[in-house]
Write a structure and sequence with these properties.
Oligomer: single chain
Strand content: over 45%
Number of strands: 59
Radius of gyration: 30 Å
Distance between the termini: 32 Å
Structural class: mainly beta
Helix content: under 10%
Amino acid sequence: MSQMFARKALVRAIASASVIGGVALSMPSYAQETSAAVRGVVTGANGQPIAGAEVEIKSLSTGVTKSTTTDSTGSYFVRQLPAGVDYSVVVRAPGEGTASTARLPLTVGESVEMDYRLSNTLEEVVVLGRSVAVAETAIGPTAVFSASDLQDSPAINRNINDVIGQDPRVYINQSNSADAIQCNGANPRFNSLTLDGIRLNDGFGLNSNGYPTQRMPFPFDAVSSVAVEMAPMSVVYGGFSACNINAVTKSGGNELFGSVFMDYTSDSLQGDSLEGEDVQVPDYDETRYGVEVGGAIIKDKLFFYGAYEKYEGVDFNNRGALGSGAINEVQVTQAELDEIRQIANDVYQYSPGSDSPGVNDFEDEKYIAKLDWYATDTQRVALTYMYNDSFNVTESDGDLNEFEFADHFYNRGAELESIIASVYSDWTPNFSTELRVARTDVDFLQAPRAGNEFGEIRVELENVDVYLGGDDSRHANELNYTIDQLVFRGRYQLGAHTITGGIEREEYDIFNLFYQHVDTEIRFDGIDNFRNGLADRVYYGNAISNNQDDIAESFSYAINYLYLQDEWQVNDKLRMTFGLRYDRYETDDAPNLNQDFADSYGFGNDQTLDGRDLIQPRFGATYDFSDDLVLRAGVGLFSGGNPNVWLSNTYSNTSTTAVQARIDGVDLFSQNYVNCEDGVPSGPGYCVPQNIADIVGSGDGSNFEIIYLDPDFDIPSEWKYTAGLTWYAPMDWVVTADLQISRGEDTAIYKRADLERVGTNDLGYPVYESVREAAFVLTNSSNGNESESLSFSGFKSWDNGFDLRVGYAYTQAEDVNPMGSSVAFSNYIFRAFEDPQAETLGTSDWQVEHRFTTVLNYTADFFGGYETRISLFGQYNSGLPYSLTLDGADGTIGAYGFQPFLDFEPNVLPIGGTRNGETGSSFSKVDMRITQELPGFSPEHRGSLFVVVDNLTNLINDEWGIFFEPNRPGVTQADLDNGAEEQRVGGTSLWSMRVGVNYSF
């Protein structure tokens, strides 16, 4: 929408200057870009093309100039212009005159079509600029945000997620601090993030925010522009099937520039009441500060840019017992918690930590350094280094029907280093290349706050499970990985055709030590059994050698990409792209062969992705139906985004080096204990019962821990069909509409591989028997995920300082399995079903059916040249879907006659029930930013004060802006009777404010 407005603004600027000529913005077919391009046709006063006209494009930041001449058709094309920079354009032809554009801003991936008509009677054309410097980066639904959009938005978290959610098709998950990006109802894990043309995804798949780190891994001020592309019909796109978030960083220039900032918040700048009741907000304060600076080392040749940001913040435990006044009250009484604490201390000699709301300090430090060297007029080299180190204190079991003592939380974070080197070369006026190499190293942290001396204890009450000790998934947990990337891409201009071809390679080298229950997990049915040591179940897993280091697995694999595309400017109205992309996987590493599995199944569990491939055709077109109406459409196949952690499960869970075991109905106080840590009491939690340790030591497992890749596994993919229009409507409105239809093929799911249906019980539920070695299989679904999205938006700017953007998106999304977890067992059980083995489409957990967004900006000069700016961002989201299910026992035992693999979760639908057939409460809020410019130490400098308010609606009225999240995997009748089908998420619902200062020079 903004790109189309820019086009209109340019046309009007030229018309107002009485210039003969025309300007239009095109939608280029190349993206995942760090650069932009300018193209067009030069004609004389008679309208005939001028061959040999000189076109000079100069960066107003660096002073670097690129020149070319028009061909026999009067056409020119200047590529590989650094994005996020303003340019001037001068066109000259002997005897024909001169034309120029004084200021032309270019954003990431943008290709501007500038047509000039020269005349001796009109010496020069001057276009001063555009109202909006944003453009689409490829044919297909796209949202693009410039540096000013990022800086002026109410981005309270200093995260691009705060800004891109202004597009109605992009929902930022409000239920937790991860701020996962959901595009058109798709799983956030299926997204891709690129920075400076290199993928910077969550390379393993443990984070829901899509980043490889806890928060955005690069400083917010370093971003010059960012685009969210839903279905870009260009073959250079890969590694995702939901959407691609494409960010470009700033570069230095001839003039020294920079900024410093600091902002602050505390408990006094946060709400303390919700829905008419006071809530308990812990005492805290947070500070963020940072600096950026750019300039020239050698004028016109060598430029530098750097940015640093540090966040000294807190993580909240907002949960407490009923009546505690906690922001999030859980269905457990303080008396029950006190009794559990007393038993833990007195009986088990373990102190579980606080059960009251509180805060935990953390730090997040990040920086980026960048060099740009214009070696020659045709060669540019860029080098970028990035570092981020951060962690959070994170809930382990924070569902709405769970409560955990403070020491059951765990420290979660990552240290990241990334280096990117790029070379841009113009070999001829018609041929250019890009070469990029990159390495990213991530050292992941997951460590229980309780340490590794005491295992997990789970006390199951009527409505809530209470947890203490070290979380079972962090008993043995160490991960680091390296990603090496190579990109080589070339473009050749052949008349009206732009031929793009490339080869890319991504290599993953992964070390993963992950095994559950190494320090045991013990479950009790009620407080009395906890006191008496009568465990319902005891879990233990470890290496057969009893050395957990033997569980670790290292493996590597690579993906090779080839692509070729033709972008054809058919005529002055129609542009089309045709292309093919080919992905091929390779690896020399296979999981350990389990001979018992091979004997049972007739093939090995050592299947890999080696040799599996996929061809992805893409087609896109744009058509200028009239001066006021542009049409676009496309169809293409996309693949990627499936987390590596799913593949890693097949390497780590072979039951050859380590096994899981479970014993039921255990009197803990009558057991002999082994494997105790030094200096701890000999007993449950600290040590392992002798009999279950013997089971593991003998290599006999019983917890379905073999996980393998289907020998017939095909690479998952998704067809995307798009159609859209942009209309320059009356009264200066710019209106856009986009339709997107997605149809998945070979969608990845987990199933139990050993089960066969042997009948149907009297209630109508299937009856399964395990007829082979117990195992999970990563396989393809016969029904692929499906979604449809229809969106509308409108933009208008007024001369009085106001501009308004409104949007609406309607989304329907279905999947077979939400696949929201990292491990096979959790993915299998945390969904609602009548038949756990059925491949039935149901409403996606990620669907937000109706979404409205509004952005209102007002800019005024109240104080003698010092700008005052007010920005408001409002959103309305329809409720999240949920399922009505039987309770855990009624499903696991009542419906299925006891099937332990259902794990007593509320995951079984009543016969005739529908997964996610119900809709929770809607959510709406408004955020605000107020910025006031101040004088600096020199006329060129500017200071500013700013205030950002998250959830202004709740500040105005504490009954507004309340967010509710439904229970997952299901809501039971008991939940409905207790009014607990969904729970208020207080951290999202409470308003908060940050105040800060910025100084730019």
